[in-house]
Amino acid sequence: MSARKDYLRKLDEELSAWDDKIKKLEAQVDKATPEDKVECVDHIERLKTKQKLARKKHEELEQAHESVWEGLRDGIDSIFDDMISYTESIMSKFKD
Fold first, then answer.
1. What are φ and ψ of residue 12, in 5° steps?
2. Which pTM does this prediction carry?
3. Whether the Cβ atoms of residue 76 and residue 54 lie closer than 8 Å to each other
4. Mind giving me the DSSP string for the chain?
5. pLDDT per residue over 62-79, tens digit each?
6. In the chain, what are the domain boundaries?
7. pLDDT classification of 48: cutoffs 50, 70, 90
């Protein structure tokens, strides 16, 4: 299997896993203090936006010529880095 196909398969798995992570985060927001809740909801909305962008980039990657897919991969990796950052920010609100 080519590196691109491997990456696309991994990306599919990651995007599915993010569906579950976002649902869990949404459930935890109910436990947040009122002042933290606003920030958490904002971060979750940003997560959803980034996830939609990652799905769009996934589609672009599927259609991309072999010579440009690595540049697209870097952009997708950056999106996931942002998503991880938002998640860490939310989870910090629940640490004692």
1. -55, -45
2. 0.80
3. yes
4. --HHHHHHHHHHHHHHHHHHHHHHHHHHHTTS-HHHHHHHHHHHHHHHHHHHHHHHHHHHHHHS-TTTHHHHHHHHHHHHHHHHHHHHHHHHTT--
5. 888 877 878 888 888 898
6. 3-92
7. very high
